[in-house]
Amino acid sequence: MTSKTSTSFVFACKLSELKPNIPVAREVNDRFVVLTLLDGQVYCIEDICTHDGGTLGDGELDGNCLVCPRHGAKFDVRTGDAICMPATEGTLAHEVEVRGDDVFVQLKDN
Amino acid sequence: MTTAVVRKEKETVGFDRAGFDQFIDRRIDPIWITQSRKDAWAAFETMGWPNPRDENWLRSDLRGFKLSKYNPTDETEPQSVGEAPVRLLEGVEVAGSIRSENGVVTHEALDPKYAAKGVVFGSLSRCARDHGELVKKHLHAQINIQSDRFAALQAAMWTDGYFLYVPKNVVIDKPLHIHAGMGDGSVDISHALVVLDEGAEATVLYESSSATQDAGGFHCGGLELVVGARSNLRFVGLQDWGNDAWHFAHKRASIGQDANLQWTIAAVGSKFAQVDQQVALIGKGANSHVNGVLFTRDRQHLTYNTIQRHSATHCTSDFLYKAVLQDRSRTVWRGMIKVDEGADKTDGYQRNDNLLLSDNARADSIPGLEIKADDVRCTHGSTSGRVDEELIFYARSRGFTRQEAIRMIVTGFFQQIFDRISIESVREALGAAIARQVRQYD
């Protein structure tokens, strides 16, 4: 998915709030994102299932993928790519920067 | 001797218990209304926000809506909404008009000729005091306040609204006009109640707008139309709130024996709209025509859940919704024809057509039928597609810009609905609203 990126990083959550392999939904600058701590790395994707426009935040992790709780679409939390039907289009993946115990994200324009 | 005047600032309260109590304290309502408000508030407090897994809300993302960002309108304070545009009055001579600002009626007028015939038209709060029995019989009779939290909030805290009563066999031969204006970041919780007695006839033009195109705000509205036996109602609604406004509404109509309702809904404004519309055909031979025009841009998200409910025999309902989508906007139309047991000879039709002007726009169309009678004719259809680039190429080869070409195509797409609207000024106002909405492409 092509998109522009805003220049600044904004605070998303505390690192200590993230538990390994447990997706956490957050509101950042009036946008909704899901943060996941996977293999010691924090990833951030847009909290929107491209299949039906609903939220992914209540979904569970299956390997590297966040599973949409409604219809089972899967998105790679590292890249936002759609891995499993019924989603065919990826969701946005945002840059993440960890500074001490703070997690910052750089939101892409969608 | 000098006297120090200490002015105590009014404490700003939100949509919480303290806010509701203050609201009730400053109102001058009949006891029955106060009680119904309290009942509705109790329902509001016990209910949660709509469940995103509920079919009606499945495609609506409410996470960005924060009720705590808004405060109830204090109707004892002067209201000002700036220059909220009025579109439907152009070239129209009206029989009466009402204007509200942030849900508070600030102007009401009715031609004395009609008042002498028993027509009542004006502020709902005032009419509830002056014509209590009439209002009490119909107010919130069709809207179930338990249906969701917005319905309960609206029933509890409507500040004012609009009431029209047309007595038996009285014909109002000029339109009545209602304009609801909302200031940037303000709240409009209002209710419209239209009651036509047997054989009556009226045309109502109801439009809403904000002071600027980018204005925000929160509208939570209710609309009830009671179309008595053999009466005729033409109702036109134009929703043109600012692009940052939240719009929630429950709209209901009940149509009696051999009565006709022609209802046109146009929505071009708000960033998010969730409208729950139901037409109940309750008398033999009742007839309803509903025309819907949706034109979206940017990131607008408009949801219309419609129900055509046939409860009597020989009734006709015809719903036609057309949507044009630009940019990353989204529309959701979920239509249902429900035919009750015994409602034979029903003729129900529903259709939703969507024209997408962008790769990133999205239209969800979900027609449905639920039929419990044996002898009915119910049909539905839906189409969605991109604009034909060959048409645009042809128009451009004739000297039109891309924007002009798209405007022509969009106007042509909506023509089927314009043909069904019998009021010329409404056709022109909708055409102008649509033309304004077309994005500059070149």
Could you explain the architecture of this structure?
- The complex is a heterodimer of chains A (about 110) and B (about 450).
- Chain A is mainly beta.
- Chain A has no helices and ten strands.
- Chain A is globular, with a radius of gyration of 13 Å.
- The relative contact order of chain B is 0.10.
- The chains are: A mainly beta (about 110), B alpha/beta (about 450).
- The interface of A and B includes residues 27, 53, 70 and 110 of A.
Helix content of chain B: 10-25%
Gross morphology of chain A is globular
Beta-strand content bin of chain A: 35-45%
Shape of chain B: globular
Going across the major beta sheet of chain A, what is the strand order?
Answer: 1-10-9-4-3-2
Segments of chain B where pLDDT lies below 50 for 5+ residues?
A: 1-8
Count of runs of 4 or more consecutive helical residues of chain B: 9
Strand order of the largest sheet of chain B: 2-1-5-7-9-11-13-15-17-19
Query: How many E strands of chain B?
Result: 19
Descriptive labels:
heterodimer, A: 110 residues, mainly beta, 6-stranded antiparallel β-sheet, 4-stranded antiparallel β-sheet, 44% strand, B: 442 residues, alpha/beta, 10-stranded mixed β-sheet, 9-stranded mixed β-sheet, 9 helices, 21% helix, globular
Short description:
The complex is a heterodimer of chains A (110) and B (442). Chain A is mainly beta and 110 residues long. Chain A has strands at 10-14, 24-28, 31-38, 41-46, 60-62, 65-67, 74-76, 82-84, 93-99, 102-106.
